[in-house]
Amino acid sequence: GRLNADNARFLLLAVLIVLYMLCGAAVFSAIELPTERETKERWEERLENFTRRHNLSRAELRHFLREYEEASVAGIRVDDIRPRWDFTGAFYFVGTVVSTIGFGMTTPATVGGKIFLIFYGLIGCAGTILFFNLFLERLITVIAYVMKSCHERQLRRKGVLPHNGRRGSGTSEVDSLAGWKPSVYYVMLILCVASLIISCCASAMYTPIEGWSYFDSLYFCFVAFSTIGFGDLVSSQNIRYESQGLYRFGNFVFILMGVCCIYSLFNVISIVIKQSINWILKKLACKCCHRCQRRLFHSRRNVVMPGNVRSRRNISIETDVVNESDTDGRRLSGEMISMKDFLASNKVSLAIMQKQLSETANGYPRQMSSNSKQNGFSGGVGALAIMNNRLAETSVDR
């Protein structure tokens, strides 16, 4: 039943995700691998020229480069950048932690910092995810309120509602927003437009200040707002900016709004994906049912009566499993289950049926005692016997 449907949905989603990942890996490999090979060849050529020009061995040069990589992990760069762990830098870091962005350009290097990050991130990420979910709920409520207000305004213009009419009781249907909740596709469209507007505005800010191209700024917005956080492009890392305080505040606001919109959009898209999976499973189930019904009909066409064929056309999966059994006991158990529902709602008909069966089994008319003959009641079977005896006692008392 419910558990089997959930398992089927889970397995289908897992298969689709794996196929999606395989396709993505093939596309990215075809696009990026040639560039990686060309870059590696140029780098090897530069190393060879550098060692030859300065009379250095390749081993010494590689050892020096490894030391620079270790320093780079700690936040050291060739160009001057602002300190990573001053208060503003630490605040930027915890923002990337609780929002699950995790650029990777700033990471704790001490054991104490790593231990504190585990507990800090555990609570911070959970609280931020809750905030994102509540943001989506508030957004849906605002959309419903706006839709309802616009509808009421149109009705007032047409004269259906009075202009001075205000809300009545809080529990009335007019005050309720339940009937004005927008569809998932409408919410998805609104979130797509909002995310696009925020990304375009943020990119217009990043392009002149960070010195990126507009396309790179859009790329950074998606990577940051979707909490992927590669770390190849990171905002607010230079040592000095023009209007530095205003830029950092704008950067914080854009990232917060972008993450809320994109995260909510992901939730809505996941609902659409779930609906699509349910539709696929429904179609597959219908095809399987029709195929099994045709196979069942062709295998039993010489033994099934036409009336039974008509009654089996709308068969369900559960009853199909029962009908495929070769034992009569399984079929009888299915029939008794349907009889229970029938008899539970027809107790009066059961009593009449029992009376008729009793009279037929014992011979009609049945020999009765003097009291029974006088009062016209027979013994009956089961509940009917109890009822008849009670009526006979009542009649004798009279």
UniProtKB/TrEMBL annotation:
SUPFAM superfamilies: Voltage-gated potassium channels (SSF81324). The chain crosses the membrane at residues 12-33, 90-111, 117-147, 184-206, 212-234, 246-266. This is KCNKD protein. InterPro entries: 2pore_dom_K_chnl, 2pore_dom_K_chnl_THIK, K_chnl_dom. GO terms for biological process: stabilization of membrane potential. GO terms for molecular function: metal ion binding; outward rectifier potassium channel activity; potassium ion leak channel activity. Residues 77-139, 189-274 form the Potassium channel domain. GO terms for cellular component: monoatomic ion channel complex; plasma membrane. The lineage of its organism: Eukaryota, Metazoa, Chordata, Craniata, Vertebrata. It comes from Chaetorhynchus papuensis (pygmy drongo). It is found in: Cell membrane. Residues 33-60 form a coiled coil. Gene3D superfamilies: 1.10.287.70. Its main location: membrane. Keywords: Cell membrane, Coiled coil, Ion channel, Ion transport, Membrane, Metal-binding, Potassium, Potassium channel, Potassium transport, Transmembrane, Transmembrane helix, Transport, Voltage-gated channel. The gene is Kcnk13. It is a multi-pass membrane protein. It catalyses: K(+)(in) = K(+)(out). Belongs to the two pore domain potassium channel (TC 1.A.1.8) family. Pfam families: Ion_trans_2.
